[in-house]
Design a protein that fits this description.
The protein is an alpha+beta fold and 594 residues long. It has 19 helices and 24 strands. The strands form six sheets. It has an eight-stranded mixed sheet with strand order 5-4-3-6-2-1-7-8. A five-stranded mixed sheet has the order 9-10-15-12-13, sandwiched between helices. Strands 18-19-20-24 form a four-stranded antiparallel sheet. The longest helix is centred in the middle third of the chain and has 19 residues, at 318-336.
Length: 594
């Protein structure tokens, strides 16, 4: 009989400090950008007004940070290289009231354990302390001359842990992460002037003017900053401030959604969900708004110890924070997200061509770097179907502005309604306008009386294949919401008892067949049953008037009045533009009448 005894691998013993520090380094310093972030936070905590960073080989060969902060006395400098030595906390109770960035007391000794680290620091101009540490061991300590502050030079990161070097990405990727770390620090701390150089090429430079919009312009570009609208809301638990894009200014990824909690860049599902909810039905599908969102909350109401790198946080009152972010964004974009003009559409796409390119090392092709210009957006792809507004028109009552002096002038190609109000010439796509109206009607009423339903004198049988029947069975309630009263009638058939009153343009049976095709085709391609919202989007598109449908003058007027009542008269649920405006002042200027 085989033995089940578990072999002993050795006695339990204490690890030496070098091994402990290298384990800690693996937790918080997994790449150059992580080391850079930890050192940046120490400089910020030291009250620096100017921080200069130099990198070589994307941070592998050199990371040097020089600041003009308060500096350290000689004994403090020695202690800073010991594990768990810190000026940020003094007792266990302080862990629930963290008001600084770096507090774990492991970053500096951990970085020193896997590199050659030179620490030069002093509290006054003149005599400074210089300590050199190689692979965790102090090899030199002396006095040198220099200005007040601290300079930390990290050479040959992971010199004694070659296995970790194998896990690093390409130099372009690692440099991109470093640029993003500095860019986020600059936006969270607009009162500090940051300079980041790579092989003497300046990648990031901010002025430290203590103005958020200025910092965003210096990081993301002037045109992007101009397109954003401010948010500011306090709900008793959290204050939310920042800059977010209007609904017509979106990206294909979340790479330009930056969140900060008490000045710390973070990742948090609650914050992401709040943004999604705020823009729900306002932005195109699979497009994401741009924004810098800063949450200020009492330290005891947030846990920053969720991850070793402090990149994730957990709120004690998730619902209250969610509400503050959602309402703050919603109120901001409804107040400031106006319809872009023709000129602003063109200016948005020009901004993509003008965004800064970062000069990388020889052998690496230059390209957009996260945090520099419009990171990751192909230059041939507009920001959104409408583009970004270069001069957001901040009006508190968009509906009244739209309706002021509204008059229908006619139509073009039975597709575009031409109208005017007191200040603008308006061009409205009749199909997507009606699509937006129907979609919001469905979302508001959820079937209570959204679409008038007409019972059939004799129920009709709708026969489909088994795959289609399975998908439709999951969506019968949603189809009833939009006026199609159906019930199962055998394995692959349904009984249709009522249809929506669609008017004279399309028969209900045509709309139903289109819906069935789109619902099942979408399910087949994604292996997921469409959500209720997706069904509503499909339905609003199929039921809306089409390009080429002839509308009478009264019908066009009614369509525009209904559009003015909608929450988002700018984009249809698919993200296509509804309205583009040409200010009358622009007409005067172009005809030299200004």
């Amino acid at each position: 009989m085989a033995s089940t005894e578990i072999p002993r691998t050795g006695k339990i013993q204490l690890l030496d400090n070098v091994t402990i520090n290298q384990i800690a380094a693996g937790e918080v310093v997994e790449r150059p950008a992580a080391a850079l972030k930890e050192l940046l936070e120490n400089s910020i905590d030291a009250g620096a007004k100017r921080i200069t960073i130099d990198l070589e080989e994307a941070g592998r060969a050199l990371i040097q940070i020089q600041d003009d902060g308060i500096g350290m006395e000689p004994e403090e400098a020695k202690m800073s290289l010991l594990r768990h030595a810190t000026s940020k906390i003094h007792r266990v109770e302080d862990l629930s009231d963290i008001q600084s960035f770096g507090f774990r007391g492991e970053a500096l000794p951990s970085i020193a354990s896997v590199s050659t680290l030179v620490l030069t620091t002093g509290t006054e101009d003149g005599q400074l302390t210089e300590i050199i540490v190689e692979a965790g061991k102090t090899v030199s300590e002396k006095s040198v001359a220099g200005p007040r502050g601290t300079t930390i030079r990290v050479e040959n990161l992971f010199l004694n842990t070659p296995a970790r070097l194998k896990f690093l990405k390409t130099d372009a990727t690692e440099l991109s992460a470093c640029v993003e770390a500095v860019s986020k620090a600059a936006i969270a701390n607009p009162q500090i002037a940051f300079t980041l150089r790579h092989h003497n090429s300046v990648l990031v430079q901010t002025s430290g003017q203590d103005n958020l919009e200025t910092a965003v312009a210096e990081i993301w570009g002037r045109e992007v900053a101009r397109a954003l609208v401010p948010i500011d809301l306090f709900n008793g638990t959290a204050r939310v401030t920042g800059l977010v894009s209007p609904p017509h200014f979106t990206k294909p990824t979340r790479s330009m959604q930056w969140f900060f909690v008490n000045g710390r860049p973070v990742k948090n599902r609650t914050l992401i969900a709040a943004v999604d909810q705020a823009y729900r039905s306002l932005t195109p599908e699979r497009r994401y708004p741009v924004g810098v969102i800063l949450v200020d909350i009492a330290p005891e109401r947030v846990d920053v110890n969720v991850s070793p790198t402090k990149s994730e946080v957990k709120f004690h009152q998730e619902g209250a924070v969610f509400d503050a972010v959602r309402r703050g964004i919603k109120e901001g974009i409804l107040a400031g997200g106006m319809v872009p003009t023709f000129d602003q559409v063109a200016a948005a796409n020009e901004a993509l061509l003008e965004h800064r390119q970062v000069s990388l090392m020889p052998g690496i092709s230059a390209g957009p770097i996260a945090g520099s210009g419009l990171a990751g957006i192909p230059t041939d792809q507009p920001i959104s179907p409408l583009g970004a507004s270069t001069e957001p028109q901040l009006e508190q009552s968009p509906k009244e502005k739209f309706l002021d002096g509204l008059r229908v002038l006619g139509s073009i190609d039975k597709t575009f309604i031409i109208a005017e109000n007191r200040t603008n010439l308006l061009v409205i796509d009749q199909h997507v306008a009606h699509e937006r109206i129907l979609y919001e009607m469905l979302c508001r009423t959820r079937g209570s009386t959204a679409i008038e339903s007409q019972p059939l004198l004799t129920p009709e049988t709708v026969t489909v294949d088994k795959r289609v029947a399975s998908v439709l069975s999951e969506r019968l309630d949603d189809l009833r919401d939009i006026g199609f009263d159906m019930e199962p009638f055998g394995a692959d058939s349904f009984l249709l008892r009522a249809v929506p009153a669609l008017g004279r343009r399309r028969t209900p049976r045509e709309v139903l067949q289109d819906l069935i095709d789109e619902i099942t085709d979408g399910s087949a391609s994604s292996s997921l049953i469409p959500t209720r919202d997706e069904v509503y989007i499909m339905c609003s598109c199929k039921m809306a008037i089409k390009a080429g449908d002839q509308l009478g003058h009264a019908e066009m007027e009614k369509l525009l009045l209904d559009l003015a009542e909608s929450e988002n008269p700018y984009l249809c649920p698919h993200g296509r533009p509804i309205t583009i405006v040409l200010p009358k002042n622009d007409l005067l200027r172009r005809f030299h009448r200004a």
